[in-house]
Design brief:
With 132 residues, this protein is α+β, with helices and mostly antiparallel strands. It has one domain. The protein is 36% helix and 23% strand. The strands form two sheets. A four-stranded mixed beta sheet has the order 2-1-5-6. A two-stranded antiparallel sheet has the order 3-4. Strand 5 and strand 6 form a beta hairpin. The protein is globular. The two termini are 27 Å apart. The mean pLDDT is 90.
């Protein structure tokens, strides 16, 4: 199985000036980094974290699935998404931040159940509120 988290680089660095979006984006990246560290425990072959520049048409590092949406009658590519491909080639795509954070924290819970090491990630207040 493979997992790829793609996030907007400007959201991650705070360049957009939206503190809530920056906090949630950092939460997602921190969770994915922790999952990557312990990926073998839950049978993940690889975990990719890609920070996409604004306007980048996709930015896929490993899994070439891109989610689009319609905003103001214009098709736009989503720069934040979680893509998971299982060993059978089935691909799941999560474009919503709430779903992404939920999936990532559930993976951390699975890892936590199988190791004595502390794999927890301290979420921001905004991130914690999203998944409760």
């Amino acid at each position: 199985m493979q997992m790829e988290l793609r996030v907007c680089k400007q959201c991650h660095t705070g360049a957009h000036g939206n503190d809530q979006k920056t906090a949630i984006t950092k939460d997602m990246v921190n969770c994915a980094e922790q999952i990557r560290e312990f990926k073998d425990i839950i049978s993940l072959d690889s975990v990719y974290i890609t920070k996409v520049d604004e306007g980048d048409p996709g930015g896929a590092e490993a899994l070439s699935v891109i989610v689009a949406g319609i905003e103001n009658d214009t098709v736009t590519l989503r720069d934040t998404q979680l893509v998971i491909e299982d060993n059978d080639g089935t691909t799941l795509v999560y474009p919503e931040p709430t779903d992404i954070l939920e999936v990532l924290t559930r993976n951390l819970d699975q890892i936590s159940e199988q190791t004595r090491q502390d794999v927890s990630v301290e979420l921001s207040a905004d991130g914690a509120e999203m998944i409760t």
